[in-house]
Structures are given as C-alpha cells and as structure tokens.
Amino acid sequence: MIQGTTKLLGVIGDPIQHSLSPVMHNAAIAHLAVDYVYLPFPVKGEALLATLDGFRAIGLVGFNVTIPHKQAIFPLLTEISPLAQALGAVNTVWQTDQGWAGTNTDVAGFLAPLRKFDWTGPGKSAVILGNGGASRAVVAGCAMLGISQIHVVGRSWEKLTIFQRSWQQLKKLENPEPVSFNPVIPQIHLWEALPPLIEQTDLLVNTTPVGMSPEVGRSPLEPALIRHLAPKTIVYDLIYTPRPTRLLQMAQAQGAIPIDGLEMLVQQGAAALELWLGQSAPIEIMAQALLQKLER
Ligand code: NAP
What's the helix, strand, coil split of the chain in %, to 5? Predict the structure, then answer.
C-alpha cells in the first residue's frame, strides 16, 4: 500500500515504458512487505541534472539507470565504484550524505548462474559474441572468474580495437568476488575467425541481439559452427525472450549446457535492491513476476 511514509525507488531512461524493472522490483517489495514503491521515470538527456536535483530534494532512496544515461550520469555522481568505472557504465545509484553513489550490477547478474557449476576459470577459454555494452560486463565477469583466454568476436575491426584498448587502459579492476582477479586483456577477432575458437572454448556467450524476439528463428551461429562445440561447453545467451533462443536449442541438442538471460536480468535487479534495502532480495518472486510479464 502506498502511504505517507512510502519511500521511493525507480528507474530513469528514454524510452522507459518497456522497462521490466518496475514489475520485478514491485513484486519483490510486495513480497518483503517493505514500505517502498519503484517507479519508471522517462528522463531526456537534457533533464538529467534537474532530475537528480529533484530526486535529492524529495529524498528518493535510489534508482536504476538505463539507456541513454548509463555513461552520461558519471559527472553527476560523487562516488563511482571501480567496477562501474571499468565498465564505463552505471546502472544503479543510491543517495549518500555527499550526493549520489553509482555502481554496476550487471557483472554480478552475469556471474550468478555460472556459480551453480563446478567450474573455475584458470586454464579455461571464453568466446564472447559482440562488443557492445553487455559484452563489457561479460568480459569483466570472465576476468573475475580467472578465465585465462577471453576472445571477443565482432563485425567491425575498428570497434573491436577501441574495445580492446579500453581494457588496456585499465590499471586495476576492484574485485568484489572471492576469487583472485588477474586483469586479462581480451583478444579480438572478426566473425570469420570463429571456427577454431569455437572448438576450444569452455564458455560461449552471445551478447548480440541476434535471435531476440520477434526474430526468434535467427541465431548468431550457423548450425555448422555449433557442431564444432565440445560436449559440456556452457552456452550462455544474454537474450531473455524467447527462452530458449534458437542458439540455445541448437547448442543443447549438441550436448552443450544452456543458460538463458533471465537469471542475469533478475540477479542484476536483486543486487540493486539489496544495495537500497540492505536485505536479501526474493530472487524467485522476481523471476516469476518477470516471466508472467514476458508471457503476457
Ligand atoms: P549493444 O551495446 O547495442 O551491443 C550489441 C552488440 O551486438 C554490438 O557489438 C553489435 O555489433 C552486435 N550486433 C548487433 N547486431 C548484430 C548482428 N546482426 N550480427 C552480429 N553482431 C551484431 O547492446 P547491449 O546492451 O550490449 O545488449 C546486447 C544484447 O544483450 C541484447 O539482446 C540485450 O537484450 C541483452 N542483454 C541482456 C541482459 C540481461 O540481463 N539478460 C543485460 C544486458 C543486455 P556492432 O557494434 O558492430 O554494431
């Protein structure tokens, strides 16, 4: 029930009407019976500063940040976690005595499903398809797992080079995980170089939107390439609709272990909620709320 004491959380972006975050967070808030509400705020770039000032004036506790503000918000924050700095993107903000602090929970979200496997990084190899925003969180996650060989595959050599250079500039990435972190500079490749990489990889991650609803018949990898996967390779598709994607269907038929993007989505939200509330988030409730929304 929204009442006089209810505290505010939310998400800013443009556009924001398709965001799944309000459904997921309000389901968690109802389940925990805490006095909060989570609202979507459509915010244009030029209104970012005024929005943060307004949020501070009304005592909003914290908020998520989505496209196009994940980088633009940096100069407005008084504290930015080393992880968010390394990724060049903030997705979670909370109010402090000094101003606003920001971090990024996508890496925690990405890593959560991988922790269920008896699987450690040293000596392992990962192939990451795509070099956009989500790919950065995946590279950081793979580095935190201690994966020795991280291969990033893209379609523009220029973009790949910029992507690789950004990691070279990184002196140190603070590691919130209980494993040692060795900064690994990802190796970069064009799609033509994939066949030998696929054969040797232990983890394949799709961070491109290829195969996402409504283009559910598409896959970033041809069936002939998928046949090169070794049995028990983990194939992780960040796409959460459809579940499974064509890529995951084909990979599973080949003996690979599929992971879809739903748990990452839930876990990045859960990590944010835990920061704001200081208590554990109900993962299952959040996942169910998302599934109901996606199936509608
Ligand atoms: P992004 O920044 O736009 O990056 C997309 C990447 O995919 C770019 O490298 C792009 O290549 C590449 N790409 C796009 N179309 C392609 C095609 N037809 N063939 C080959 N490569 C293609 O997007 P993002 O934010 O990283 O998101 C990517 C995907 O991850 C989306 O499907 C999104 O829903 C999903 N995602 C899921 C979660 C989750 O929690 N599960 C979180 C974040 C993202 P160019 O650079 O050459 O254009």
Answer: 40, 20, 40
Q: What is the C-alpha to C-alpha distance for residues 157 and 159, in angstroms, rounded to an integer?
A: 6
How many whole angstroms separate alpha carbon 249 and alpha carbon 189?
Answer: 25
Counts for the chain of helices (H) and strands (E), in that order: 11, 12
The answer to whether the CB of 64 falls within 8 A of the CB of 23 is no
What b/e readout covers 189-222, taking b as 16+ CB neighbours within 10 angstroms? beeeebeebbeebbbbbbbbebbbeeeeeebbbe
What is the token pair recorded at 67? 């496209």
Ligand 1 pocket, CB under 6 A: 106, 109, 130-135, 154-156, 159, 207-210, 212, 238-240, 261, 264-265, 268
Q: How far away, in angstroms, is 282 Cα from ligand 1 center?
A: 28
Q: Record the pTM.
A: 0.93
pLDDT in tens, 11-61: 999 999 999 999 999 999 999 999 999 999 999 999 999 999 999 999 999
70 catalytically annotated:
yes
